[in-house]
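Reminder to self: tokens first, then the designed residues, so the page reads top to bottom the way the pipeline ran.
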């Protein structure tokens, strides 16, 4: 349980210094949310190496059923056609044993490189070592290396990775400095600093630990906000227990006005149903937030089941990863891809089936670079 203190003993208004502090936090959150709703994509790369053709690449997705895994892997495969690569997209089936099997299958297939999409180093360390010993390049896209504090905390193993942001951060830094705070800023802004959050807290997945920790840290700056954490695991998702856990949390905290899910994927498999049930029982103002802006999430935002998501361009991610890997093949440094986020609420859902960023013609831009133009 995490409790972020609510109003002080002097009553709802507290003292003047506290009121001023809260007002400042709310103003900051509203300013950040306004920028995030507009989208934070940056300038596309202007130059880079020509395509290094003839490469055999395996793109291992954590699952081909989850858009956050499948769309980037398929995007990399589409980009690979323009690079002259043979890209094989494979399904990790959300199973670390399968991840390792697929890496070893890529070694046997004499792949030149393996791209990992939401497949972290900590779960595949031995197989990665075997791949590198065989001369296979291991590239992390939206994946956490073994030096990440939540994914092993050891030494970096990836031969290369997709840089995140203008400072070329690792993926964990992006989640902690951008995604988690963006969710918190919207919650603070939308509730005018009066948020009582039921946070779904998953600690058996490094990605959700990054999002959750940074969300709570930002919420802690709002002294009139409160967060109560409800733990859940991957096993709860697969066994269909997530709806019950969410409903129990809402029952335990009847004054909560926000439910935060660290991933959109949780919402269609129980979280959304629990929130809708609570709304029908009289809590019509209950808000539901997520992260990814997946195609299913866009539909839920339009219907009003979900109220907010941090949207991320997943197909573009795959193209950017392919460009970064091509730079690695060419012996050049990676560069900022320009990928940012776009916060979405029910009033600002992009009129598309799949959100893929605000940068126009990024695919044509990469193709131009790869053709040496």
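Designed residues (373 positions):
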């Amino acid at each position: 349980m995490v409790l972020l203190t609510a109003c002080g003993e002097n009553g709802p208004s507290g003292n003047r210094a506290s009121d001023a502090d809260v007002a400042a936090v709310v103003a900051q959150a509203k300013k950040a949310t306004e920028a995030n709703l507009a989208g934070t994509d940056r300038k596309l790369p202007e130059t880079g190496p020509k395509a290094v053709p003839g490469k055999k690449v395996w793109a291992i997705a954590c699952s081909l059923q989850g858009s956050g895994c499948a769309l980037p892997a398929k995007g990399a495969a589409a980009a690979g056609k323009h690079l002259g690569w043979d890209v094989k997209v494979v399904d990790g089936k959300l199973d670390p044993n399968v991840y390792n099997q697929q890496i070893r299958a890529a070694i046997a297939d004499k792949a030149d490189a393996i791209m990992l999409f939401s497949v972290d180093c900590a779960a595949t360390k031995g197989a990665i070592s075997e791949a590198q010993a065989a001369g296979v390049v291991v590239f992390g896209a939206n994946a956490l290396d073994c030096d990440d504090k939540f994914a092993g905390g050891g030494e970096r193993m990836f031969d290369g990775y997709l840089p995140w942001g203008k400072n070329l951060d690792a993926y964990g830094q992006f989640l902690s400095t951008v995604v988690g705070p963006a969710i918190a800023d919207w919650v603070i802004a939308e509730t005018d600093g009066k948020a009582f959050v039921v946070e779904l807290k998953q600690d058996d997945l490094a990605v959700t630990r990054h999002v959750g920790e940074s969300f709570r840290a930002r919420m802690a700056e709002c002294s009139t906000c409160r967060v109560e954490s409800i733990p859940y695991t991957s096993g709860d998702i697969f066994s269909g227990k997530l709806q019950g856990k969410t409903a129990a949390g809402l029952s335990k905290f009847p004054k909560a006005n926000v439910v935060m899910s660290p991933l959109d994927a949780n919402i269609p498999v129980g979280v959304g149903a629990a929130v809708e049930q609570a709304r029908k029982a009289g809590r019509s103002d209950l808000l539901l937030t997520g992260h990814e802006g997946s195609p299913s999430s866009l539909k839920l935002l339009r219907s009003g089941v979900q109220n907010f998501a941090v949207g991320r361009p997943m197909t573009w991610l795959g193209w950017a990863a392919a460009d970064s890997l091509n730079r690695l093949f060419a012996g050049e440094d990676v560069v900022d891809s320009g990928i940012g986020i776009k916060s979405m609420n029910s009033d600002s859902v992009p009129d598309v089936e799949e959100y893929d960023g605000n940068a126009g013609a990024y695919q044509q831009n990469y193709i131009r670079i790869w053709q040496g133009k």
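Residues 16-38 form the longest helix (23 residues).
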